[in-house]
Specification:
Elements: H1 10-31, H2 38-61, H3 76-93, H4 101-105, H5 107-115, H6 117-121, H7 124-134, H8 143-178, H9 188-213, H10 221-242, H11 258-263, H12 274-291, H13 301-308, H14 312-322, H15 327-346, H16 352-358, H17 364-375, H18 379-394
Helix pairs in contact: 1-2, 1-10, 2-3, 2-10, 3-8, 5-8, 8-9, 9-10, 12-14
Length: 395
């Protein structure tokens, strides 16, 4: 197969556009006004790695690698450090300090890079031969070493992506036990992204094996892999436009740090007597009815426990055992109930944003999310349904 015309197909143009979108996102992230730039710097590096993968894929499939075959493999280091970078980003976003552990986490990446040295040291003629074979007849004769590298990278990815998934899940559950601040919802996207990255790792491995044993006419996996990267970049771009503050580290005080969470008292395996549970339950319900503490958007379990003169860990037991929900869900159920009351009271004159703030929510987006989870409808849909039912009753 001859590669004399370095032309670009439509799908390659799409991939290059995704790479440019990633560069634009990097510019936005680095320019974002935030007191802690570490999370955004790490996310920028991650995006740069993804962009390099797209650029090299396009560079190879367009035949442009003939111009300077020595450069082939320039995206390999980024592919290898991609997963630990994402893990570092999640830790920085959640205010978890890794310290010197960062160097330990980079050791597997260094080992895989060392495995790739034979490709780096290959001469230009050899690289051209292998690249042409990789996109035409596969590389079965080279599969032993290449499969080892692909397997190492895929396992490395899965370990770190899954570890990040567990990290965010654990943090989110801890916050919901001690805080009713809907700001915790801003970290849930990391859980979903971590799961998506696990799928990404599997696709990478299948794609790599496809390069080794299949021909370009039958192998769609490499294209599927890079399109997944492009889709991920476009998704991040969409989220950044839709929610400009999504990638910014939340300000201290809005949500507790992991250190604060770990200092909170546990149940200590001491179950409250049924009579005391019921007594605390009545105190809690009376407090919620009379003083409506849930209208405070930054309400914490410790604050409510102090006002009830109940130890925080015992109040947490009451909420978890008696009501069978987290503190976060318990308080936000009251907030949604109050919002529904306001909608019924004010009718078509209701302003959704005003109702959100009056009900203890700090933003319209979090209000919509929690309201829909509790009722199955957004506040606007709930208001429209109420208005329609009122109009029907008058006819």
């Amino acid at each position: 197969m001859e590669f004399t015309n370095n032309s670009y197909s439509f799908y390659e143009v799409v991939l290059l556009f995704a790479a440019l979108q990633a560069i634009f996102l990097i510019f936005v992230l680095l320019r974002a006004p935030t007191s802690n730039k570490v999370p955004n710097i790490l996310l920028s590096l991650l995006l740069l790695c993804l962009a390099l993968i797209l650029v090299e894929h396009t560079w190879v499939y367009s035949g442009a690698f003939h111009i300077s075959p020595r450069l082939s493999g320039f995206s390999m280091p980024g592919l290898i450090v991609l997963s630990p970078l994402y893990y570092f980003y999640a830790n920085a976003f959640l205010q978890i300090k890794l310290g010197k552990k960062i160097f330990i986490h980079m050791l597997p990446s260094l080992a895989i890079i060392l495995l790739s040295i034979p490709w780096v040291l290959a001469n230009s003629e050899r690289k051209v031969e292998l690249l042409e074979l990789s996109i035409t007849t596969g590389l079965p004769f080279f599969s032993s070493h290449a499969t080892l590298i692909a397997t190492a990278i895929a396992v490395h990815m899965l370990v770190y992506f899954y570890a990040t998934y567990l990290l965010v899940e654990n943090y989110e559950s801890k916050v919901k036990e001690g805080s009713a601040d809907v700001g915790v919802l801003s970290v849930h996207w990391l859980t979903q992204l971590s799961f998506s990255f696990c799928v990404f790792a599997v696709l990478f491995y299948l794609s790599a094996l496809g390069y080794l044993v299949m021909t370009s006419e039958t192998n769609v996996l490499p294209n599927l892999f890079v399109y997944t990267i492009a889709g991920l970049i476009f998704l991040l771009a969409y989220l950044s436009y839709r929610q400009p503050d999504l990638f910014a580290l939340y300000q201290p005080g809005n949500l507790p740090s992991v250190k604060e969470l770990e200092e909170k008292p546990k149940y200590q395996n001491t179950a409250l007597a049924p009579e005391l549970l019921m007594h605390y339950k009545q105190l809690l319900l009376a407090k919620m009815e009379a003083e409506k503490p849930y209208l405070n958007g930054e309400l914490r379990l410790a604050h409510l426990a102090e006002s009830l003169t109940i130890p925080a860990h015992q109040l947490s037991q009451v909420v978890n055992v008696v009501f069978n929900v987290s503190f976060f869900d318990f308080i936000n159920q009251y907030r949604v109930g109050y919002a529904k009351m306001l909608i019924h009271k004010e009718g078509t004159a209701s302003n959704i944003l005003d109702i959100a703030f009056q009900s203890g929510f700090n933003s319209k987006a979090s209000f919509n999310r929690v309201f829909k989870r509790e009722t199955g409808l957004t506040p606007s849909q709930f208001l429209a349904n109420r208005s329609n039912s009122e109009n029907t009753s008058f006819t």
